[in-house]
């Protein structure tokens, strides 16, 4: 039997589905933690000794997240395996596509260790960090699936290209420090089931304060850098598409600042706002990843040399 092939448009939908499923699992995983359901299923891979756990809220919040992992696995396996059947065939899509099921497998293993070690902060931080890497691979796949090689010319705007990449690097640092702050705070993931979860204590009893302040410093730096890049792009009349994406990142970061200030300084870290903070952080990460794709790569120096300049150089020689 001859296996079906997929057009670029059909494969693009498969890549989009994988990206969407990976995004949803990040948000559902955050819901597990802030509702204190992290040990609703204290064993792994089964839940409370079987595949049909008792009807308890925290058990099913955690178990539902595990079940949705199956949906994510199917979507990511499809993105990886069906890349071989896309026509025209592209090696870059195969490489990126295969990273997704490998990432899901790594997440499942890490999730198992996270449960077995009672939500130890390092495992939980690694779980979210690996999620961000999976989103990076999925976003790259979705972006590349939209464009054929050579369809988009390389950029000659170094400010746009390097400025956008710098924002992504700052965003990665801010997210890491956000996981440190979360691992030092009250939402360890076991409050709903009455479990006591170890917290990070890098600065002793002052850990949560120090972690939040360091996270806030880098988040502020990211916000200021994003606004500065937006102004620079506007003054240089750079790509309108890139300006829109960077503008959206500015809006998301402003919303992050408001939510972060409310949850820490005013309301005392309520679980609902913490979850919204994670949602906005994930959305910002995705927008920054997309911005890197929109900014593109710099044109090679040899390609930037005009025909007249090359002729002058030949005559001078």
Structure summary, number of beta strands: 0
The percentage helix is: over 70%
Low-confidence stretches: 309-317
Described by the principal axes of the CA atoms, the overall outline is flat
Task: Please report which band the strand proportion falls in: under 5%, 5-15%, 15-25%, 25-35%, 35-45% or over 45%.
Answer: under 5%
The SS-based structural class is mainly alpha
- N-C termini distance: 63 Å
Measured on Cα atoms, how large is the radius of gyration? 22 Å
- What pattern of helices and strands is seen along the backbone? HHHHHHHHHH
Report the total helices: 10
Tally of distinct domains = 2
Mean pLDDT across all amino acids: 89
Main β-sheet description: none
Oligomer: single chain
Describe the structure.
- 71% of the residues lie in helices and 0% in strands.
- The chain has 317 residues and is mainly α.
- The protein has two domains: 1-149; 152-302, no CATH class.
- It is flat, with a radius of gyration of 22 Å.
Key features of this structure:
2 domains, mainly alpha, disordered C terminus, 317 residues
Question: How is the secondary structure organized here?
Answer:
Blueprint (H helix, E strand, L loop, with lengths): L7 H27 L22 H25 L9 H26 L4 H25 L12 H27 L22 H29 L4 H27 L4 H25 L5 H4 L2 H10 L1
Helix pairs in contact: 1-2, 1-4, 1-8, 2-3, 3-4, 4-5, 4-8, 5-6, 5-8, 6-7, 7-8
Please outline what is shown here.
The protein is built from 10 helices and no strands. The chain is mainly alpha-helical.
